[in-house]
Design a protein that fits this description.
Length: about 190
């Protein structure tokens, strides 16, 4: 929104107050975050960094410090992304579900910190404690049977996703709570 206002010329402000250099974005390409600052400066907007120890006065020293901080922010983002990916992969390898609604034919099971099943989660229900985990289990028998039939039609009868979705719709098969109509993307998932 800020950049849209600046680019359109409708900005009713002269100063952009930014917490620190990383607030423009933690991009791997430092030119990207510098570009956003440049857009504002070109439009006559002064940039003030509230939590930085340098004055954003265009001097060589402030330019060097900003670029170093942009590199550091990008590196922080890359490292954090790697750590999060590895943590999710490790938890998945232990049999835990990483999040989102369960696919059709499956249900989410809440597991406490001792590994005991607490409950089967209803749609929209989330784990209560950070120490809890979630695993997937088979859903109702009718849904499991329908998933098996979907696979049979796809593999043996060579039906495409669209034809399977249309068949489910025509037979009034109950939809998952997250969707309004059977569709190809849902079948593929």
């Amino acid at each position: 929104m800020l950049l849209a206002d600046v680019l359109s010329g409708d900005a009713e402000f002269d100063i952009v107050l930014v917490y620190d250099v990383s607030r423009w974005g933690r991009f791997q390409d430092t030119d990207e975050s510098a570009h956003y600052e440049f857009i504002c400066k070109r439009a006559g907007k002064k940039i003030i960094y509230a939590a930085e120890q340098f004055s954003n006065d265009g001097s060589p020293m402030s330019t060097i410090v900003k670029n170093i901080k942009r590199v550091m922010a990008g590196e922080y983002s890359r490292e954090l992304s790697t750590k999060v990916f590895h943590a999710i992969a490790r938890r998945a390898s232990e049999g835990y579900f990483s999040g989102g609604p369960a696919n059709y034919g499956l249900r989410r099971v809440m597991i406490d910190s001792a590994g005991n099943i607490k409950s089967i989660a209803e749609f929209g229900e989330w784990k209560a404690y950070k120490t809890d985990s979630v695993r997937l289990t088979l859903g109702p028998d009718d849904e499991v049977a329908e998933v098996k039939e979907i696979f049979r039609k796809f593999v043996q009868l060579r039906w495409n996703y669209h034809k399977i979705a249309k068949d489910l719709h025509n037979r009034n098969v109950k939809l998952p709570p997250t969707v309004k109509r059977w569709n190809s993307n849902l079948i593929r998932g």
